[in-house]
Write a structure and sequence with these properties.
The complex is a heterodimer. Chain A has twelve helices and 16 strands. By secondary structure, chain A is of the alpha/beta class. Chain A folds into two domains: 225 residues, Rossmann fold (3-Layer(aba) Sandwich); 135 residues, Rossmann fold. Chain A starts with a strand and ends in a 5-residue tail after the last strand. By secondary structure, chain B is α/β, with parallel strands linked by helices. Chain B has a single domain, classed as Rossmann fold. The chains are: A alpha/beta, B alpha/beta. Chains A and B meet through helix 3, helix 4 and strand 9 of A and strand 1, strand 2, helix 4 and helix 6 of B. Strand 9 of chain A pairs parallel with strand 2 of chain B.
Chain lengths: 395, 310
């Protein structure tokens, strides 16, 4: 175990603190609410000589990701951070970062996408980027965001992976709320993340490479296949890094967290901050003798479908919480993936979807109690009235 | 400066065997620019003809480090490589001096990549940005850009029965870049190799960002006789459609003053894209273009502190 310190930080401060301790070679970022503070804090670290980082004040998120790609291709450890429309503006280059196998780490402070413009939390931004080839780690609170950012460096740069990682936390709910958390020593972070030594990069003039060539039907497919394999490999690496981080800090990380799930009959699957609220509801229901449980997904990409199926195989009804609407008319992105993961069990597990909290609409403990009530009703009647429902909306 | 013989013996950074069209200006201009550099290079190229014709996987025509990111972000990309270099050099992880250059067509520079270019120049990176201006989106099949000359026939500004080609005058990007107050901005043409070589050398030598706008004819889009590329370039300059000038630390300088007045018509008639302008009913459009060329020339003379013509 390493030396740790209890501090009170907001989510944005915690993430900026992790970035400071990682001390990347390059950060290129553009401010956007609610991520702005991360950029501001990091600017002050640079201005006060607390990091060795070259900080690039780009003119847009598109250029933020483009410059980060350039820096990472140059063999630098490069980071950026964004939210919502900023992530949407990066879209094109997200795919390029992943496909060029550049281990960039990017905190994403979850915020609803326009229109109408809204600065508050939902997961439309990162969920929209779910197929861009980035690993996605979701964080319930500031502690997890801090821990995930540090682990993300190791995951991204692992030679079996070499993929970029997005670390998300909920806008305002976590990014701007003060929380007690434990941070580890600067030296311990430095040792944990180690030195980045890429095999090939643009700043090695004795070994010039061509990156990003035209790649047609004769090779493109093979490159995509390799990329898919890297995403598969990421699962093992995420677990290894999570274990090692646990030895260091006492906080081990897996693919997801099971909360009172092992004997549960009704379970909720939820990501990020709402998991904390849902846990309170589970505790209250357990006191009443209800068999409520929870699965909090940490890793959405790669999607741990076998592990999720295994963790839920004994459950009778699953309520999947989606804080984004995919406009597929078949529920949110977490729902369709979880439901598909359970198919091979060939068990009659009822799986329903609740779209909630769009544009920052709050969800409280009593809301989760109601949702668990619905799940229990489905369990006893065997009937599903609405496969997909919108929780907490005026209709 | 080096003699032509010396330059011809230098090892090419962009090798032969690439798949640019015969009679295309891009290969010539790129080789001339890179010939002026002694240090190892990182080249960033925007999506376009230069990129697709030189890097068809698993082949590459580049003997230096090369990155293609996307269409509109060659400037932001090379700025990222340059800061990586600064960071790693400061930490002692890189010893050699290196140079950083981005190439984009007029689409990737004047239009879709304009914001990225402007941002990178304003931030003061030690990079050179080279625009290879062939006056349309040639790689996607000759669509008009903001660099396309007035009156030109392109696939999105076709010479039709009602609208006779492009209706707008070209954006004066070189002047716009000069207004960024960066150390070095120049406009050049490959037919004048000495002038181009010298400008490329200066661009790489200054401390900070430099911008070169190079006219680069496209045989498909301009429809000239391919062996005549040098003549086409020369007439663009002699007719004052494409003046050769530079702006060094804010000081404008005209590099070539044509000895006699050559009407722009002389340049237009070499190119199929302007053929429709020579119909009787369209002659007035040539006059309109001529007036604009004359007007811009006068502004340039004033900026350069040159006497106006009689």
């Amino acid at each position: 175990m390493v030396n740790t310190k209890k501090v009170a930080l907001t989510g944005n401060e915690a993430v900026a603190q992790a970035m400071k301790q990682i001390n990347p070679d390059v950060v290129a970022a553009y401010p956007i609410t609610p991520q702005t503070e991360i950029v501001q804090f990091f600017s002050s670290f640079v201005a006060n000589g607390q990091v060795d980082t070259e900080f690039v004040t780009v003119e847009s998120e598109h250029s933020a990701m483009s410059a980060t790609v350039g820096a990472a291709a140059g063999g630098a450890r490069a980071m950026t951070a964004t939210s919502a429309n900023g992530l949407a503006l990066m879209w094109e280059v997200l795919y390029i970062a992943a496909s060029n196998r550049l281990p960039i780490v990017m905190p994403v402070v979850n915020r609803a996408l326009s229109a109408p413009i809204n600065i508050h939390c939902d997961h439309a931004d990162s969920m929209g980027a779910r197929d861009s080839g980035w690993i996605q780690l979701y964080s319930e609170n500031a502690q997890e965001a801090y821990d995930n950012v540090i682990q993300a460096i190791r995951i991204a740069e692992h030679p079996d992976v070499l993929l970029p990682v997005m670390v998300t936390m909920d806008g305002f709910i976590i990014s701007h709320a003060l929380e007690n958390l434990e941070i580890i020593d600067d030296d311990a972070v430095k040792e944990f993340v180690g030195e980045y030594k890429p095999d090939m990069h643009l700043l090695d003039p004795d070994n010039p490479i061509t990156m990003g060539p035209l790649d047609l039907y004769d090779f493109y497919f093979e490159h995509k296949r390799q990329q898919a394999e890297a995403m598969k490999n990421a699962k093992k690496v995420i677990l290894e890094v999570g274990k090692e981080y646990g030895k260091l800090t006492g906080r081990e990380y897996g693919l997801f967290e099971k909360y009172k799930l092992d004997d549960a009959e009704e379970a909720i699957i939820v990501l990020n901050s709402a998991a904390g609220t849902a846990k309170e509801a589970v505790d209250a229901l357990r006191e009443k003798g209800k068999k409520a449980g929870l699965l909090k997904l940490r890793v959405f990409r790669p999607f741990p479908y076998q592990e999720i199926a295994d963790a839920l195989k004994h459950v009778k009804v699953v309520g999947v919480m989606d804080r984004s609407e995919g406009f597929s008319d078949f529920g949110g992105p977490v729902f369709s993936q979880v439901r598909s993961a359970l198919y091979d069990l060939k068990q009659d597990i009822k799986v329903v979807n609740y779209i909630y909290g769009l544009g920052g609409r709050d969800i409280a403990e009593e809301d989760f109690a109601k949702i668990f009530g619905n799940l229990e009703k489905i369990k006893t009647t065997g009937k599903i009235d609405n496969l997909v429902s919108y929780y907490g909306v005026r209709e | 400066m080096a003699t032509l013989k010396e330059l011809s013996q230098k090892k090419e950074v962009l090798t032969g065997g690439h798949r640019l069209c015969a009679g295309c200006g891009h290969g010539i201009a790129t080789r001339m620019v890179l010939n002026a550099v002694e240090d190892p290079l990182v080249v960033s190229v925007a999506t376009g003809c230069l990129e697709v014709a030189t890097t068809i996987y698993p082949y590459t025509a580049w003997r230096c480090s090369f990155i293609h990111n996307a269409f509109e972000n060659a400037a932001a990309t090379i700025s990222g490589v340059e800061v990586a270099y600064r960071a790693l050099k400061r930490k002692g992880k890189i010893e050699k001096d290196m140079k950083f250059v981005a190439f984009g067509g007029d689409g990737g520079t004047y239009d879709i990549g304009f914001q990225s270019l402007s941002g990178a120049m304003e931030r003061g990176h030690n990079i050179v940005y080279v625009c290879l201006d062939n006056g349309a989106y040639m790689n996607t099949g000759i669509q008009r850009s903001s660099a396309t000359p007035f009156g030109a026939d392109t696939t999105t500004s076709p010479a039709g029965k009602v609208i006779p080609g492009k209706q707008q005058f070209r954006k004066d990007l070189t002047a716009v870049m000069a207004d960024h107050n960066i150390p070095y901005v120049a406009q050049a043409s490959p037919h004048n190799w000495k002038d181009l070589h010298e400008k490329a050398r200066k661009a790489f030598e200054v401390d900070g960002p430099a911008f070169l706008n190079i006219l680069s004819p496209c045989p498909r889009g301009w429809r000239y006789n391919t062996p005549d590329i040098s003549q086409v370039l020369k007439l663009a300059v002699e007719s004052r459609y494409w003046p050769l000038f530079e702006v060094e630390n804010g000081k404008w300088k005209l590099n070539h003053r044509p000895k006699k007045y050559v009407p722009v018509e002389e340049w237009l008639k070499l190119q199929g894209r302007f053929r429709h302008l020579f119909k009787e009913e369209n002659r007035h459009l040539i006059d309109k273009l001529q007036k604009e060329v004359d007007r811009r020339w006068d502004i340039l003379l004033e900026r350069c502190g040159e006497k106006k013509e009689e």
